[in-house]
Amino acid sequence: MSGREHRGTIFVEDAELLAQQEFPGRQFVIRLRAPKCAAAATPGSFGHLTCDPLLPMRRPLSIMRTDPAAGWIEILYKIVGPGLEALSKQRAGAVLSVMGPIGQGFKPSPARPKTLLVGGGVGIPPMVFLAESLKERNDAAWQPLVLMGSEIPFPFHTRPSTILLPGVPNGVIACMPLLDGWGVPSRLASLAGFPGCFDGYVTDLAAAWLSSLDPVALAQVELFACGPTPMLQATAKVARRFGVPCQVSLEEFMACAVGGCAGCAVPVVTESGLAMKRVCVDGPVFDANAVFPPAA
Asked: What are phi and psi of 215, to 5 degrees?
């Protein structure tokens, strides 16, 4: 997609900060009144946010939830520098500039309604957004399953799931309560020894669940992932191992976030060969085999 095709779909809004909640590990969930962004956002898109009036550079942050009727968006972030440190100090009523929604989101196929959503760390938000979107769609018998991994405490209060989930190891019962309340099964993975979590990488938990499926069920599976690059590479390998299609949302440093500077370009395999694609507007979602091709 050319940058020209984004004209009229990205909005700049003065967004009121409605709420900000802190979680362990210097993680925060913020809710912003940004009605135009809320109405147009899709799972996988992000906002480019001004963190403080004194800091000119915006930060790209994935959208976790939206309510178009109420006009708000929610964003999860973890403090990793002075910009997000400044954002964490903003209080309800503050006005922040939001540019969005930006990017190409996930495109689930109704032919594969058994969707496996894998999120790692700050890659969790798009998975929540996608799960909520699938829950509300009626074009297929969607069966989303969300697996999340983190080595710091999760940015929500975990509890045992009320939803039985065949195919996961015994004792793996911790879930995200929000998803559980929606009737969407979720399970958590960590090497930090958190109660009820799978002891290992979230990609290993994904492989364990996939290995429990028969060929008929596997033919209905599509995999979606967002998280650190090593996790996405491992997810792509798991998808190839089980022969299921996979879409990944890349994390990359961005300056303009609207395709002008090309500072976020990455090599992508296309029908015409290797090409440089901008993560901000050509992505952030790509076919896993296009960005992590099999080794020759």
From this structure: -55, -35
